[in-house]
Amino acid sequence: MESNIDNRYRWVNVCMNRRIFLQLTSLNTLRWLALSTLPTTLSACGTNPDNTLNVRLLKNSIPPQLVRQFRAGLDRQISLNFAAEEQLSRLFDLLTPAETPAATQQQLLPWRRTPGVSQLDLVTLGNYWLSAAIQQQRIQPLNVGQLQTWSELPSRWQQLVRRNDQGQPDANGAVWGIPYRWGTTVLAFRRDRFRDLGWTPTDWSDLWRPELAGKISLLDQAREIIGLTLKKLGQSYNTANLDDVANLRSQLQQLHRQARFYSSTHYLQPLITGDTQLAVGWSSDVLAAMERYPQINAVIPLSGTALWAELWVRPANASNENPLVNQWIDFCLAPERAGQLSLLTGGTSSTALGFNRDLPKELREHRVLFPPNPLVQRSEFLLPLSEESAQQYLRYWEEMRSQPVT
């Protein structure tokens, strides 16, 4: 739940949701204006169900021109149905368990347009949802032996999606998703306000500086906020036993006293209006804000941060026979498309790190989209916790939030 939300923050442009286009230059802004008028469903000619690819993806996570290029490169007539959803939670809801009858699926989601849930071939899923999707049997493993681009993914990205049947990381587990886009948790700040202070943020420890008391926006996410505090203390985001970390409780209480605002959707609005000076947020949101509001800048904390990824997953009810699935994944992850996907979506292509020398200079030198490799190595994906550890995080979070913000 959000706390102390000022209603005036809500009217600030709704495009500050987590997934949005990034425009790095004036040319890209013009390109975005043209693309943003396209419908959320992109279809090509052809009605034969054997030549159809049905995809539900997160809005703005794939540039529309990539879909058009994919269609143009195929050697036969097919039907493409790419429809966008605003939130990752809605995409998770589309992934109904395998035993759910098709008629029941349609009743659960009566407002969905055809094709029905049972007909979907691929769906976007955030890595944070992967464990639950596996446990609830909403998705099926993929055969990466049929993918040409699997070997192009960094090993950590491959390890992220290898899980056992309970959704836990397993080096010998099946592959349950293909990461196609990733980003980081960053510090966003007001250039003008920090110019007056005479310094700029560089690491998580800056959140505790006394001059920022009551001037910080924080994500309403226990794993993110407890995790960055752990990182400040030299620990891992995925620490299993919080009771073993000295001074963690006191550090969380101090950070809470620094905060003015908690939200996972409106955290940038008080920064834009000037009511806060520093915010913790997701890179795709912050990059979009930087384009619209030049007074906002961003930095990835030097001690390392949380990584997020978006994955292609196969619904449990999807047919295993559609060759277009592997063709699309290979097309999407091909190194020659890494720059285009990164430039237009505010998230970094999962194959870009190994080929950044071939990317435009404006991308290679963009330290949020393409952070230095040592900084990436110090950063971590949020991995699933045991039930006992998850309850411990919840207790610490409730204790931290028990007092009103300033």
Describe the structure.
The chain folds into two domains: 153 residues, D-Maltodextrin-Binding Protein, domain 2, CATH 3.40.190.10; 226 residues, Periplasmic binding protein-like II (D-Maltodextrin-Binding Protein, domain 2, 3-Layer(aba) Sandwich), CATH 3.40.190.10. The protein has 16 helices and 15 strands. Strands 1, 2, 3, 4, 5, 8, 9, 10, 11, 12, 13, 14 and 15 form a 13-stranded mixed beta sheet that branches. It is globular and about 65 Å long. The chain starts with 25 loop residues before the first helix and ends in a 6-residue tail after the last helix.
Short characterization:
With 406 residues, the protein is an alpha/beta fold.
Write the layout of secondary structure elements.
Layout (H helix, E strand, L loop, with lengths): L25 H10 L6 E2 L8 E7 L5 H9 L6 E7 L2 H7 L7 H7 L13 E5 L3 H6 L3 E2 L14 H6 L1 E2 L10 E2 L2 E13 H7 L18 E3 L3 H11 L15 H11 E4 L6 H5 L4 E5 H10 L3 E4 L6 E10 L7 H11 L4 H8 L2 E2 L11 H4 L8 H5 L2 E2 L5 H14 L6
